Amino acid sequence: MLATKVLKAFVGVLVVPLLAFPQLSYADWGGHHSRPQHYRYQDHPRPGLHVSIIPPGSFTIRLGGSRYFYAEGVYYYRSGRDYVVVAPPVGARVASIPRDYKVVVVNGRRYYTDNVHYYAHGPRGYEVVQQPRVKVVYKR
Fold it and tell me: Mean pLDDT throughout 107-118?
């Protein structure tokens, strides 16, 4: 009897609030987060995720005959009725990148990275580039 009361109290205090207020990930939204600056790149949906809508304010990037959409640090590609999250296409240019990207200098050039994707900054904004190769010079 006491065990039943304790179990009911446990469910009422801990489980019910979890069910009532589930934490949604960035990929689960049914619309748009109003404060995207609080999301780190690692919190963004991963490539391959299909979504039916993309955030308002996204813009189109045309690259090599393909059309991509960019919003809040995430790239999308239209596939049928859905949008598919894709890796940043090399050559794409955007005005801004996620705040949590780190600066690295490789072979004397500055890049911005999340350790997976790389951007180089230029006069026309940030351009997605291939991961730079490190040049090692041995001196005798």
Answer: 90
